[in-house]
Amino acid sequence: MTSMPDGSLARLVVVTDPATRAHRPGAEIWLGVRTPGTEVPERVDAILDVLTAAGAQVQAPERDPSDLLLRIHSRELLDWLASAAERWEAGGYVEAVGQDRVVPYVFPTAAMLQGLPLRPAAATHAEAGRFCYDTMTLVGPGTWEAALASAATAATAARLALAGRPAYALSRPPGHHATRDGFGGSCYLNNAGVAATAMREAGLERVAIIDIDAHHGNGTQAIFYDRADVFYGSVHVDPGRGWFPHFMGFADEVGSGAGEGWNRNIPLEPGSGDDAFLAGVAELCAQASALGVQALVVSLGVDAAELDPESPLRVSRGGFSAAGRLLAEMGLPTALVQEGGYHLETLGLLVADVLGGFRVGRVARRTPLVRAQQRSRLCTKCYICAHADHRRPRPAQSHRDSARWRAPRRGLCRDVAG
Ligand code: SP5
Ligand code: ZN
């Protein structure tokens, strides 16, 4: 089931740009210690090698993401990211300090500001902490070029998806930890947010971002938290059990104001495998469908894999393939955007497993029998199973116009529990 025969991804478009390799962070400063870091340019080749061997078509980005970036990020962040490496070099930090990458050292947190407004700092090394919220996400000479190219792959994948071609953006560096005016977690620009914004700008009223990366996409969540047009749903290792991003990604974060019910977090116990992961993915798909979304962005991280060094989840190759099928069964125009995944030996295979599963799901959906089953697949008790007693004829319709609808708070029904 999980082997990847030649040509199995033949209809898939992979959007990739050599410039995504230009970001060479060189290290991560973790707990004050310089470590090699796992978000390396070799990830691009690890993925591309497998996808091209499986017959995927490769194309360059063809959509400038600048206007989309301004919709989801502050101009201050974009200007700073675009010029930080140059100013670091001009500031003499390379010779005087011996540090060739931009690294923050002081963070103007709420605990420091105590209610005073955040001002720009005069020193370049202090200004870094105004935007970067951790010590692991270094900026160097090629970082902006790569981040921009990465966002362009996502914008292009969204355009292709809306034109009827499911597309995969080989976006690197990843994006889902980047907020409106901050960055961290190896992310600089929010690529999934760019793709979702491209879909909204193209005229779709409601879109979903489903995030299967092992970590909670706190940046994507924050960007869309109060909005009732972009659903964000994530399945990830429980931050409450000590995992990045530590401070958000909890189940009670359901969106605010008009966006209530448009955010969904499904935290998993460390050590969780296929069953919990897939139940989570299915639940996210069902909630997005119930909200009547018209297109889908997948934040496709594969660091939930058993061998990945950055997460304690234990999802198998078959699990990733099944996740791809579930996502395809939503039957929506879909852009898949790369996020994390750090085990270089299996990274490409894992991505190909999701994409191969997605392809299988698309083909299955075209048969009338499966379509008929899907029309009745939602259950009012748990939003996952197709139990007849729980069936509701048109859940998407019934929720779509209801401003009062909230995320289901109950657990799984008896048909899928345990
Ligand atoms: C996009 C994405 O997956 N970002 C993940 C960021 C989480 N990084 C947390 C890093 C914690 C330190 N890692 C040390 C690994 C040693 N095994
Ligand atoms: Zn991750």
Provide a descriptive summary of the structure in words:
The protein is α/β, with parallel strands linked by helices and 418 residues long. The chain folds into 2 domains: 13-71 and 145-359, Arginase, Chain A; 367-418, no CATH class. 37% of the residues lie in helices and 11% in strands. It is built from 14 helices and 10 strands. Helix 1 packs across helix 12, helix 3 (75-90) packs antiparallel against helix 6 and helix 10 (274-290) packs parallel to helix 11. The longest helix has 22 residues, at 344-365. It is globular. Mean pLDDT is 89; it is low at 369-418. N-[3-({4-[(3-aminopropyl)amino]butyl}amino)propyl]acetamide (SP5) binds at residues 30, 136, 174, 177, 185-187, 213, 215, 244, 301, 303, 309-310, 339-340.
- Span from first to last CA? 25 Å
CATH architecture of the largest domain: 3-Layer(aba) Sandwich
Within the CATH hierarchy, at the fold level, what is the topology of the largest domain? Arginase, Chain A
Number of H- or I-type helical stretches: 14
Order of helices and strands: EEEHEHHHHHHEHEHEEHEHEHHH
CATH top level of the largest domain is Alpha Beta
The order of strands across the largest sheet is 4-1-5-10-9-6-7-8
What percentage of amino acids are in beta strands?
5-15%
Bound molecule kinds, no repeats? N-[3-({4-[(3-aminopropyl)amino]butyl}amino)propyl]acetamide, zinc ion
Q: Got a strand count?
A: 10
Q: Gyration radius, to the nearest Å?
A: 21 Å
